[in-house]
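Why do we bother with a discrete structure alphabet at all? Because it lets us treat a fold like text: something you can write down, compare, and reason about line by line. To make this less abstract, here is a complete entry for HIT domain-containing protein. Read it the way you would read a sentence in a foreign language you are learning: slowly, and without expecting to understand everything at once.
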Amino acid sequence: MDCVFCRLIREGTAHWVARETEACAFAPLNPLAPGHTLVVPTRHHAGVFDTPPDALAASMALVQRVAAAMRTALDATGVNILSASGPGSEQSVPHLHFHVVPRWEDDGITTWPTGPSRRHSTGDPSTLLADALKQA
């Protein structure tokens, strides 16, 4: 397996924001905004579906700290936390990662979908999810 994020972690060649035992943060090649940061678990996990809870918790704790640093260091008034997992999600790198994007009012970018999905569900989606969670 030749995962680009695993290679960056192994070789230490990223523009690091933070390096911790379970998670790390670095600048992406094409940032959406000044300070845009990627947070990834240090061990390879393709997405949210196969990431152990401890690695997910460590990654989210770092996401939270990075977001707080964006408020103090960059005067960001908000952040977007973006992640995609699985083939239907437009995931670009098959290693769990979170984009932490600092935001400011009138910054000219949008990250929210412009319309609803064309996908329809048979049955009430909330009920289907609740039933699946009871069986998990």
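What the structure line is telling us, in plain words: The chain has one domain: 4-108. The helical segments are 4-11, 53-74, 125-135.
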